[in-house]
Amino acid sequence: MGKQAVLALRAVIVALFGGCVVVQGVLVTLMVRDLSGAGGGGVLPRAAAVMLIVVLGIVCAQTVLWCVWRLSTLVRRGTVFTPSAFRYVDVAGGAFAVAALLLWALGVVLAPGEAVAPGVVLLIGVVGLGVAGVALVVLVLRILLAQAVARDAEACRMQAELAGVI
What we know:
The structure is a single chain. The protein has helices at about 5-35, 45-75, 85-110, 120-165. By secondary structure, it is an all-alpha fold. The chain is built from 4 helices and no strands. Helix content is about 85%, strand content about 0%. The protein has one domain (about 5-165).
């Protein structure tokens, strides 16, 4: 991965992370204002649950962005095939899994009543399934990383043996 590609990726990550922070700030401010003016009827707990799920979902996205930043640093240094990369891949995969669970929880919170159409709840469930699929892809990529790290270690061992023979 070239230097320009890493810089472009980091620019995108900074823009996305900044957007997440702005959305969190605006969302929390608007939701608190709406909740303070909301009456009874079960609206308050439901809206608070939706706000919590959305904020936690944004935290999951920020976690993935941070992990990609750290992995791009390892790529730039040429040290991505080391055991330190597993930590970031594991955290990113976990964040995707938590995001899928949060989407399904959002569907459960929005399902009762007539405030949200059933199709929207179904769409949220399908998106959750897609995010769970991404978590599984990250798991497969982690397995590939483990194989690459093992091969790299084997190659280093063989190279050391060859240097000893020569």
